[in-house]
Amino acid sequence: MMNLTPVTHGRPKQLQSLMCCAAALLLSACQQTQIVFTPTEPPSLASFDTPYPLDNHLPESGIIIPATDPMFSDEVHTELNLPYQLHRLASVQSNHDLNSNSLSSNSLSTHALSRNSLSNRVSLAAVSPQAPFNNPDILQIALQEKARALAIHLADPCLETFSIRVSLHSINLSLTCPDDVNHIYGLLMQFWQPNTFIDATTAPVDIDNIRRQLKLNKHLNAFSGAEIDKLWREKLLGPEHPYNKVLNNDELFDSLNLKQLQQIQQQAASQAQWHLFLPNMQAKNAEFDLQASIKQWPMLTKSLPKSLSKSSPQADKLETTTPKQTKKIFLIDAPGSVQTQVRLGYRIDHAIGHTVDSELGDMSEKSQLNSQEIALSCRSLSALMGRSFSGRLYYDLREKRGLTYGIYGQCANAPLSTSIKFYGSTAIEHTGAFVVGILDHLALVKTQSASQGEINALKTYLMGEDVLSQDNSIQRENQYLQQLATGLTQVDVQQLNAELQALTPKRLQHLANGAFSGEPLIILRGDIDRIIPDLTSKLPEWQLERVKVD
Questions:
Q1: What 3-state DSSP class applies to 201?
Q2: CA of 22: how far to CAs of 14, 16, 17, 18, in Å?
Q3: Contact at 8 Å (CB) between 134 and 244?
């Protein structure tokens, strides 16, 4: 008998099975995208106590003695009207006993000199302590373009060593090569002539390339997340602060021409106090012709268009409104981002002459910071909390809890503003726990004194950092320019180092209550829709505000 059972039913069953599997996969995929947010934990501190039995057997380390000698020796020539202040790299001879337990940076400086004896480094620095330079971001790109044009036109190998370091208050151009210092000085003069950019007969620059580079940098900053630092500066200082008026001139980025570029350069030159750094007289080819240098000095234009002069020469005396920080978290949306960038900190110079929150009672008067304490608290607290591996935040939030690859502290001590910023990135699921962890540590340092062991470790770090900076002539030069910009003398620096050496747990707690008073500024950049539920749950008393960075 023939089997009449249909055999075509197997295919629909296969299709049905496949559809069920597909649905199951989709459901499982949806389940996988559900974020499980990391819970918060109380702050954890590292122990700096020496374990038994080593506590009685380890040799006592001596006090680290920072350099007391000047980094550079000033050459004064009263018979000449020099347009610059002349500095020679100091020749330091150590007068300390190297067999003692004391470590002095004086003993390191001579080695730094001998290592660089084959080349002469000459630097010409423009410093403006009273007000920031206008459009330093434009000038930096333009001077780099000029160096490229000069290197091609003159075929001078020395120009290949060109380096530039630009800040809001200083522009430092350097060349390092075996040539005679007079020749190197002549090359540096090429960057500050009245016809450096406009009507240039030697090595004209490509203005189109400069405009393209400025626009490219803007797009790269937006892509890399650097826009968070722009918003940080605006929210910390206020839109009318000089530091927010001299940068990121988008309109000028689009319309920049050679005439405007020359005006920017001449304005900076006229505004600046000039400092020329030469190698030690013991170096080869270090003899400098002062008379010839005066003849090569550029004629500076004194009258400048007001359109390019945004900031006042007396910007430090301007009264600007500093934003009052409240319990508000600013959010920059970066859809699809797998991590959250975090900026959190305080402007601490705003506390000068003012009391802290009245709710603190008697603590408000004790927490006022004078100018010396501002510098001391900025340096010590940023290092205590965020000095990489041995900082409190790194130890707890990375080493103990694994919330980040790294979190760091930055002390920004500028002439018109001083602030402490903690920065790092974390995975989306860790966002709330990461922010709460930072806030908990900032609260802890104000209420609980550090151990003496931790204070000793902090001193060793800060003094050791100073010793290392003295061993590098470039770092010494940058440090010296920072001192010039902020108005610090060598006596002030020595006094600050002495206060660091005398730092006690009680003094540090006092500094923390002054610096970390009020509410911190918090800015996050990440996938807002995914992190808001976590922030709302863990920080219910904080208001969330979306912001867009231009």
A1: coil
A2: 12, 10, 9, 6
A3: no
Q: In the numeric block, which tokens belong to residue 141? A: 């790109």
Q: Contacts from 41-44 at CB under 8 Å and sequence distance 24+?
A: 41/401, 41/433, 41/437, 42/440, 43/392, 43/396, 43/437, 43/440, 43/441, 43/444, 44/395, 44/396, 44/400, 44/401
Which residues lie below 8 Å from residue 369, measured CB to CB, with a gap of 6+? Answer: 348, 351, 352, 377, 511, 514, 515
Amino acid in the structure at residue 414: A
pLDDT tens digits, the chain, 550 residues: what are they? Answer: 444 344 444 555 565 666 666 655 555 544 446 889 999 999 999 998 877 666 565 555 555 566 566 778 888 888 899 999 999 987 654 433 333 333 333 433 444 444 445 789 999 999 999 999 999 999 999 999 999 999 999 999 999 999 999 999 999 999 999 999 999 999 999 999 999 998 877 889 999 999 999 999 888 887 777 889 999 999 999 999 999 999 999 899 999 999 999 999 999 999 999 999 999 887 788 899 999 999 999 986 654 454 454 444 444 445 567 888 999 999 999 999 999 999 999 999 865 443 334 333 344 444 567 888 899 999 999 999 999 888 999 999 999 999 999 999 999 999 999 999 999 999 999 999 999 999 999 999 999 999 999 999 999 999 888 888 888 888 889 999 999 999 888 888 889 989 999 999 999 999 999 999 999 999 999 999 999 999 999 999 999 999 998 7
For residues 20 and 320, what is the distance between their CA atoms, to the nearest angstrom? 66
Structure token digits, residue 177: 């090569």
Give 518's contacts (C-beta < 8 A, 6+ positions apart).
324, 325, 346, 356, 357
> What is the CA angle 197-202-206, rounded to 5?
45
Q: Which amino acid is at 407?
A: I
* Residue 232 to residue 199: CA distance in whole angstroms: 40
Cβ atoms of 360 and 514 within 8 Å: the answer is no
CB count in 10 Å sphere of residue 333: 15
Using a 10 angstrom Cβ sphere, with 0-12 exposed, 13-18 middle and 19 or more buried, the burial of residue 127 is buried
Token digits for 33?
């995208």
Nearest Cα to Cα of residue 229 among 432, 431, 421: 421
Closest CA to 316 of 486, 484, 478: 486
Indicate the SS3 state at residue 396. Answer: helix
Residue of 203, 515, 241, 185 whose CA lies nearest to 380: 515
Cβ neighbour number for residue 527 with a 10 Å cutoff: 18
Take residue 286 and report the two structure tokens written for it: 């270090």
Across-strand partners of 410? Answer: 421
Residue 124: its H or E element = strand 120-127
Using a 10 angstrom Cβ sphere, with 0-12 exposed, 13-18 middle and 19 or more buried, the burial of residue 235 is buried
